[in-house]
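Holo prediction. Input below; ligand is manganese (II) ion.
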Amino acid sequence: MNDIDGKPETALAAEDISRLRNENSRLVNRVAQLERMLSLQPQTGLPTHFRLDLELEELIEDFRRREDRGGFSLLIIQLGDNFAAIRKTLKSSVSEWILYETGCRIQSLLEPGDKLFHTHENEFVLILPGRKGRALEGFLRRLITLLDEPHIFSGLNVGIRAATGASYWPEHGEERSAILHRADIAAGAAVEARKSFVLFKPELLRRAVERVELQNSIVKALESAGIDNLSEQFTLFFQPKVFASSVGEEYMNIERVEAEALIRWRHPQKGFLGPDSFIPLAEETGLILPLGKWLIYQCARRLVAWDAEGRADLGISLNLSVNMSARQFRSQDAADIIASALGTTGLAGERLTVELTETSLFEDPEATKKTLERFSALGVRISVDDFGTGYSSLSHLHRFPLDEIKIDRLFIENLDSNRQDKIIVSSLVSIARGMGLTLVAEGVEKPEALRMLWDMGCRGFQGFLIAKPLAAEDFLAFCDRVKADGMRIRLE
Ligand code: G
Ligand code: G
Ligand code: MN
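Structure of the complex:
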């Protein structure tokens, strides 16, 4: 039989076979080269994640065959943030040296049968057969001491913080993936708690699962509803922030009312959630960015709608304060989002105040200044939230275009009994006045505290004494009541 070119079949096959042979040996070499690359980490010469997967599988098989229930412990050692920072900022030879040395240090502690892998840039995995509990404690002490020693390298002296998580086979999981996952959760818990070592326990898994679920439901709430209908799940409460013109025995007279918007979540399964149970997670995962954007738009729309309906009319246009988280503030488009919310709704910038914590302001003062100047250019007012709890230096406050300071409620709580708090608050009042800033006391619960604050010269008040955070309708009712009472609020 001939093929289509008319050549005899056997001749073609012989040619092909020799070509294929060459090709084959080239591929074999290439595969061997890739295997070497995949199985050994170049910086440390230690086996990689691929080898870990294979060897862990074999080890588990082996323990099962031998019915050795003594098992092993698996440690995940992660080098901390400062290692990542060194990698970014210093020459790569420095981070390579640190990795190499870390590998050597761990290796110096190993006994026959122990296995060390360099699985990711900043991560090592250690398998210690038969070592658990007390036997592991001794090892850990030596490991942590050794890892804590500074790395000295051509004049540099750097300490690297390492966090280790451990799990036991077979107690914490029978399968390879389970045992790795448990150790990873423990390592994550160690990083979060800034501890050198955490041993896995089932409670950690429950917490991790809960976090993932919560994260998923934030994503779902954001996705399913679309930015306009998000309000099916998220809703805003409004806590009045009032400015007094006089404070008497029974009443205070009010010059104007503003409100702070506070987010609440009507979670389909968990019910009504306050921000403390999801804002930190939203911050961590970046979900705060779409959520924060929704918030700003929501506040702008609210004000425009109230204006159109003639609600919340106290003779002066209502101002709403929005809390902006540090991550949102640092994102490139914080000012653009405000600008487009104002543009879309036609709201004047003066109607919004952005509340920022001291920590977000002082993290990167240069960038802060630029962003705040853009906010100011839009007419938006800027308020420092929870003032006094962070580390901001008073002398730096004047560098930023600020409008308002809110004294943290920690200082207000015991104002009538704590002399220290009294001194701090009255100096804050004079600083704020001196700098021409509006001052608001947060968490005012007792009439005595309000009177003391008034006597010190504070004019802005927020707290349960005046009103709790209120649903929109209740907030409007509050405004109506204040107006009906001749702009007075009863103090009791
Ligand atoms: O009631 P309250 O539990 O609302 O708020 C607790 C904390 O959550 C406060 O520190 C407040 O700043 C924060 N918070 C409330 N609402 C929001 C919001 O809409 N965005 C951000 N980033 N933080 C909020
Ligand atoms: O941190 P921020 O100021 O944004 O927080 C507002 C938080 O303070 C909300 O959780 C709100 O419920 C709470 N809050 C407001 N007024 C009072 C008060 O008078 N007492 C107490 N304990 N908490 C208050
Ligand atoms: Mn606030």
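The pocket of guanosine-5'-monophosphate (ligand 2) is lined by residues 239, 262, 323, 385-386, 409, 442-445, 463-464, 469 (CB under 6 Å). That is the main takeaway for now.
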